[in-house]
Amino acid sequence: MFLSKFIPYEKYVLFTNLTSEQVLKVISEMLGSQNYADALYKGGINGNTFKATRHIKGRNSFLPIIRGNISATSNRTEITITMTLPITTVIFLLVWIGVTGVGCLKVLFPSLFNLTEEDKPIWFLPFLFLLIGYLLTTFSFKSESKKSKEFLEMSLGVIETK
């Protein structure tokens, strides 16, 4: 999908020659169920689905939440992966877009807000803040999701990606 390149969301399917049990074992090891401190990812497994996020020191609001669904086909295993932003980050971004969006409307339609020439903000600032929020979110999410995708492909011995 064309728009998926421009929004902080990813969905794709990985194919591997491992069995679904082997895939679950690799993911379990990845989540470090035995020793949480050494885990590369944190999360859990429920049946043939899993949810994980990269385990890092410090904070990063743009780490993707990885949801996966494992299903066996006749000769290979299919892992459907969805990566999204955490809900708290989404809520913050909606507030950010709302506030800067109102600023953009005030610049574009000053008569609707009964603004005089003295009240008009510097015209480009609301648009700049909107652009900065978008770029920061998109590039941070995409760089983190790329790291996770590469790690999953390497760990699971992926033979094909859709």
In short:
By secondary structure, the chain is an alpha+beta fold. It has helices at residues 20-31, 87-108, 125-156, and strands at 9-16, 41-46, 49-54, 65-72, 77-84, 158-161. The chain has three helices and six strands, in the order E-H-E-E-E-E-H-H-E.
Helix content: 40-55%
End-to-end separation in angstroms reads 12 Å
Strand content: 15-25%
Rg over alpha carbons:
21 Å
Biggest sheet, spatial arrangement of strands: 2-3-4-5-1-6
CATH superfamily (homologous) name of the domain at 3-87 and 147-161: START domain
The major β-sheet equals: 6 strands, antiparallel
Low-confidence stretches: none
- In the CATH scheme, what's the topology name of the domain at 3-87 and 147-161? Alpha-D-Glucose-1,6-Bisphosphate, Chain A, domain 4
Give the overall pLDDT as a whole number: 85
* Total number of beta strands: 6
Order of helices and strands: EHEEEEHHE
Shape: elongated
CATH class group of the domain at 3-87 and 147-161: Alpha Beta
Number of helices: 3
* CATH architecture classification of the domain at 3-87 and 147-161: 2-Layer Sandwich
Structural class: alpha+beta
